[in-house]
Amino acid sequence: MSDAGSSSSSAADDEALQKSHDSSMSTHRRDRLAYDVYQSVLRSERGDWIELINCAPLASQYHLSEYSISKYGHHGAPYAYLPLSLQQPELTESILLKQNGHEASAWLCELRTERLPACHKDIPVSKKHPVKLSCDDSSVKPVPVATEEATTALEHGHPSTEPSFIVKTSISHPIKYVWALLTVSVSAIVPPELIPMISHHVFSHIPSHYKQMVEQLSTTDAAIVSWHQAIGRAALPEHISISLKNTKDHLQQQVRGDQLIRVPMSLSLEKILQDQGIQTWPMDEINQPTIGNMYLSSCPGKKVRLDGHVQGRSAICRDLKVDLQRYKDLGIHVIVCCLDDEELQLLGSPFEEYKKQVESQGFDLVRLPIAEGFAPLDLSRLDAILSVLILNYTLRGASILVHCRGGVGRAGLIACAWILKMNFVAPEDNEAGKEGPLPSAKASDDLRVVISLIKLIRMRRSLRAIETAEQACFLLEYVRLIHQQEYARTCYSTCTA
């Protein structure tokens, strides 16, 4: 009996040893492939490829990323991550050619008819008790589809019979704001309890002429498009269209000080979260308007895997109308959609139906179609859009929601850009608030900002946020643009003083 037990234990040990050896060999081959590719890219002497491969470790798909380690164990993913732009350059070229057409024609803004409220109060802030980040939402569980409403929703999603597998719907998995980072949650960049405190900081440094303009327009139907300019609300879509076609003028306005580069005086949101945690700040202690928040979510009305589970992932059959209503309950005023018509159709929310429901529930809509895994092609175009969003929504107290398919890659990228322009992140060695980096500032400062942005978005949304090297590389380029514009503004001010 003892011999049999010893033999069984020995066999188990041998099997474990073999698995460990196989894993070690697999990791060695993975790392060797990654090294060979890196050396090949260096030999190409192509600056764009070199920068892309250097940004690869920042991607959540990277084989040694925090996400990969959490998913596969401490050795990371068994395969090497290589940016698609390097793996399949011809496919990438065709994808970006299609996206370029979208940026030229599909980026648009649809407005509801009534005016934007002068000051939106965000999610009610507790006056006594902080909310714990670690709280679980026990009500969010997969449930079998059994209700008549859920079955009807599935029929609209095209399955012919009631499924026997688990399906996530807008009823079983309601879109709502929760502290725990759940797949079905809407994530807020700024914890609602910190909105009053951060608003106090932001409005203490906003140009006085902008605040006066907001006060004067509080009862009028107007849109703010620069530090000094307001236009009729109905003219905003045309203004955005013109700005996207003439981004050079947008950049020149920034240098002259007429247009937003970044909100003045930085504030490290990451440091506040780490050092102070969630604190309450009673609304009645601050007699001032609040900023609007930035939310991230997966695609509303999303319908995928309706024929059954795929690789252990449940079917999803959401109701567009129900999801949008929950956005409205959160106080969201404008939706930024990063999907093109084809992808919306694929996800079960055809654009015409999507647009109809968005308009019927009173949202403004901004479309920024971006190919999955990629980023906007034009830095200044995105910057022009973000300037309008911040001046006309965020600083007027209206919250923004951005979504793509899952709300982590493309949506996470737009949220990072918003965080940067709101000045909620800064290098540790650049004391918050100076007019911008000095000419001697090192390139490592730009990279440090990017790392901080990615760390913050993963803290607030998901470890998967910023999925690809292409997206991380775009962030680096965008940080450089903002720093360059700030330095140009400083030089211009000095010369014209």
Number of domains: 2
Give me the CATH fold name of the largest domain: Protein-Tyrosine Phosphatase, Chain A
Strand content: 5-15%
Listing every helix as H and every strand as E from the N terminus to the C terminus, the arrangement reads: HHHHHEHEEEHHEEHHHEEEHEHHEHEHHH
Low-confidence stretches: 118-165, 178-184, 429-440
Mean pLDDT, to the nearest integer, reads 80
**Termini separation (Å)?**
94 Å
E-strand count: 12
* Count of individual helical segments: 18
CATH architecture of the largest domain: Alpha-Beta Complex
Q: Briefly, what is this?
A:
The chain has 497 residues and is α/β, with parallel strands linked by helices. The protein is 47% helix and 8% strand.
Architecture overview:
- With 497 residues, the chain is α/β, with parallel strands linked by helices.
- The protein has 2 domains: 64 residues, no CATH class; 336 residues, Alpha-Beta Complex (Protein-Tyrosine Phosphatase, Chain A), CATH 3.90.190.10.
- It has a 7-stranded mixed sheet with strand order 1-11-10-12-7-4-3, with helices on both faces.
- A hairpin with a 5-residue loop joins β5 and β6.
- The N and C termini lie far apart (94 Å).
Secondary structure topology:
Blueprint lengths: L1 H43 L2 H9 L10 H7 L11 H4 L1 H17 L2 E3 L37 H9 L10 E3 L6 E2 L7 E4 L6 H11 L2 H9 L5 E3 L5 E3 L3 H10 L1 H10 L12 H7 L18 E4 L5 E2 L10 E3 L2 H10 L2 E6 L3 H6 L4 H10 L3 E4 L11 H14 L6 E5 L6 H12 L21 H18 L8 H28 L1
Parallel strand pairs: 2-9, 3-4, 7-12, 10-11, 10-12
Antiparallel strand pairs: 1-11, 4-7, 5-6, 8-9
